[in-house]
Design the sequence.
């Protein structure tokens, strides 16, 4: 307890003394955490929307006008027996026409001029939301395409999968950028801490000569790094929240439209805590590196 | 307390700071190391503080072979030694009290022990009224007294002083020496490196003269003020 108190007191005093150089490491830590937080917020929202699309994804089986009653019954049995289908609805030719008139009122007159209803009957199949069923759904769609009485099969998941892949790629690219920023932040903290160590070299020499335990010698460096990283993370989270609030205020409705009518959400509390812990961890690592470098340079720690 | 056997310290390009030096300092003894600049006084103190290792020979302090100590044993060993330097080595941003209390604090003493010991030694060196002053506000003699208080606060078995009066006038020098004699009178072994032969004469203790890293003279002093120091030949 005493060593912790000592390390904290020395670290805060040193942080305050070197506040100008400390501000630099706080800002680099803040930049790394801000980018990481923004990336997490973006991918979280995109995944939520994609999840919604996936749960609403449908497979539509268009039935040929020439299909016999037996063929229709066989199609329906095959859908009911499938493990990937959650439920299904039959949309008759007249239902399809009614929907068309409702959705495209200005084109209704064109349909009326035709002798017969050109729209096919269909089965709308709602799929299970388990993402692991991807290939099973593909197989199911292929089987239906080859079944007698089926004119066509339309399957939403193909383009959803492509968007998901895009999000994964974005996340990987973001991870690389964040990694580079985190390394830069840790090195900046290490150098700032080392600079602080240089100004405390007289004190460190005395500590070495009186045989002070390592925890007392290196501890303040680690805590100082941790403070820099922690303050950086807090600044980043504040900036993220500010940016989110501004975005909501000015572009809220546009974002909601883009996100399928669901409002964008800020980071969940767990991620908030993880980002803060990440800032502290990056700072601690920087502090440790700084202490080791000081040891090498001053031969005291 | 201190035994040096055929001790040598060689730096780059074969420069000998100490050459085949052997000496013994008994428990509770007060010994001066003297000689011109570059004689090897400070090198011997650095070896005794285990800041450096001897190139050859053996150095034993209170039964500990210094060359065999591990890093953690070096820390423990240093906790049993007090050191005083010519330039005081005080921390400018800390008060007198903080400079002295710093040692028990980093050695994990309880807060009560820290306060009690610090106040005791500051009172002993006559600086209890300047506890809240910063080093820059003190005279050279006062700063050295703070350094002495810091060296004593941990009850060391051995006090090493490297030119402790080098920056002080003769009166203040004698005052500091009197403090060191009082420390010695309490049973602590004291080893003082100085080139001030007049001071050695006035204090009157055994003095070992080094030159070019070797002992060239050993003088046995009486234990009173103003005694004549007589040369001897054996260590």
Sequence:
């Amino acid at each position: 307890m005493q060593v912790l108190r000592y390390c904290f007191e020395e670290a805060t005093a040193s942080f305050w003394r070197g506040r100008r150089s400390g501000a630099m490491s706080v800002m680099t830590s803040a930049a790394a955490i801000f980018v990481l937080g923004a990336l997490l917020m973006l991918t979280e929202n995109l995944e939520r929307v994609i999840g919604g699309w996936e749960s609403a994804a449908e497979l539509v089986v268009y039935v040929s006008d020439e299909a016999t009653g037996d063929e229709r019954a066989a199609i329906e049995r095959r859908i009911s027996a499938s493990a990937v289908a959650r439920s299904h609805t039959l949309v008759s030719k007249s239902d399809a026409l009614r929907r068309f008139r409702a959705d495209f009122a200005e084109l209704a007159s064109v349909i009326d001029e035709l002798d017969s209803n050109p729209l096919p009957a269909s089965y709308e199949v709602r799929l299970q939301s388990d993402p692991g069923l991807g290939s099973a759904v593909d197989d199911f769609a292929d089987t239906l395409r080859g079944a007698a009485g089926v004119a066509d099969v339309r399957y939403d998941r193909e383009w959803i999968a492509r968007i998901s892949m895009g999000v994964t790629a974005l996340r990987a690219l973001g991870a690389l950028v964040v990694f580079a920023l985190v390394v830069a932040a840790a090195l900046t903290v290490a150098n700032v801490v080392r600079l602080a160590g240089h100004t405390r070299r007289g004190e460190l020499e005395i500590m070495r000569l009186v045989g002070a335990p390592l925890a007392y010698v290196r501890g303040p460096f680690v805590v100082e790094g941790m403070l820099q990283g922690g303050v950086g993370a807090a600044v980043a989270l504040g900036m993220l929240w500010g940016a989110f609030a501004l975005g909501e205020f000015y572009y809220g409705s546009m974002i909601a439209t883009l996100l399928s009518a669901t409002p964008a959400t800020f980071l969940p509390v767990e991620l908030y805590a993880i980002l803060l812990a990440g800032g502290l961890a990056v700072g601690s690592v920087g502090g440790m590196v700084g202490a080791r470098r000081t040891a090498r340079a001053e031969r005291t720690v | 307390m201190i035994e040096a056997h055929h001790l040598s310290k060689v730096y780059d390009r074969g420069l000998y700071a100490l050459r085949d030096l052997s000496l013994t300092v008994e428990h509770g003894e007060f010994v001066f190391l003297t000689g011109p600049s570059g004689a090897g006084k400070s090198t011997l103190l650095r070896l005794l503080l285990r800041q450096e290792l001897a190139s050859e020979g053996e150095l034993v302090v209170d039964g500990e072979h210094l060359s065999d100590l591990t890093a953690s044993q070096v820390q423990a060993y240093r906790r049993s030694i007090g050191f005083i330097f010519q330039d005081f080595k005080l921390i400018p941003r800390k008060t007198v009290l903080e400079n002295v209390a710093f040692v028990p604090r980093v050695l994990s003493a309880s807060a009560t022990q820290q306060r009690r010991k610090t106040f005791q030694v500051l009172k002993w060196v006559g600086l209890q009224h300047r506890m809240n002053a910063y080093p820059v506000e003190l005279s050279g003699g006062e700063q050295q007294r703070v350094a002495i208080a810091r060296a004593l606060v941990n009850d060391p078995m051995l006090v090493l002083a490297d030119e402790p009066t080098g920056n002080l006038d003769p009166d203040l020098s004698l005052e500091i020496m009197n403090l060191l004699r009082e420390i010695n009178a309490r049973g602590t072994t004291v080893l003082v490196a100085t080139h001030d032969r007049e001071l050695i004469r006035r204090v009157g203790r055994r003095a070992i003269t080094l030159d070019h890293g070797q002992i060239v003279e050993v003088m046995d002093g009486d234990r009173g003020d103003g005694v004549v120091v007589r040369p001897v030949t054996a260590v």
Observations:
- Chain B touches chain A through 21 residues (CB under 8 Å).
- Chain B has a mean pLDDT of 85.
